[in-house]
């Protein structure tokens, strides 16, 4: 056995540190005891479970974390942000299956399927096995479903709710998966992946054959908000412009989609 000589320490230092440690441990107890009388006679409040929501709206801000939300709160001013109207705050671990830093595909798959996957995987597990998305599950249960995005239809985030692909860059294959999804409405960019494809297929014709109405632009005057017809409305050939570059359709598109989905199913929508 090897010998180890502990360094000598001044006994006075040990005594001082012991006293400081004891004080630091006793102070919280002291303050708690001082505050205790305020609560001793208060009756316990019964907690009632919240009513089950009929509709679920999932808002996803690309790359939006606590730092971005905090910056928005400071910029808006106290009590002025809609984030402060939410009664419940939750957290989740955003890392992907094998990487501390996630990407849009793995992050959206966690939202849509409730599983971790590798960066780049679209609604598949680490073994590339497809998993049902929440949109697919709710559609089977009779709920109306839809998406409004400020990116293309084949972008990783919306794709993770309707497609199952091993690599997020398979944009043409992701567009093909829209022919398999039960989604009731879509508003967003990326029309070129449907009607200007390398394989010369026109997926808009295929969507029409499935009963979809195909619309274009950012005016929603002709959108079937009565819920009678499923539709896809393309706002751009590729990626829509940024808000700073003039994009203004998100708010009216969201209102239009919610009105449509509300009329589409009496059971609820997501």
By CATH, the topology of the domain at 127-264 is Alkaline Phosphatase, subunit A
- Counting DSSP H or I runs of 4 or more residues, the number of helices is 10
Indicate the radius of gyration in whole angstroms.
27 Å
Shape: globular
- Mean pLDDT value: 85
| Largest sheet report | 4 strands, parallel
Count of extended strands: 4
Rounded to the nearest angstrom, the distance between the terminal CA atoms is: 67 Å
Name the CATH superfamily assignment of the domain at 127-264: Alkaline Phosphatase, subunit A
Proportion in helices:
25-40%
Give the CATH architecture of the domain at 127-264: 3-Layer(aba) Sandwich
Q: Kindly provide the name of the CATH class of the domain at 127-264.
A: Alpha Beta
Short description:
With 270 residues, the protein is α/β, with parallel strands linked by helices.
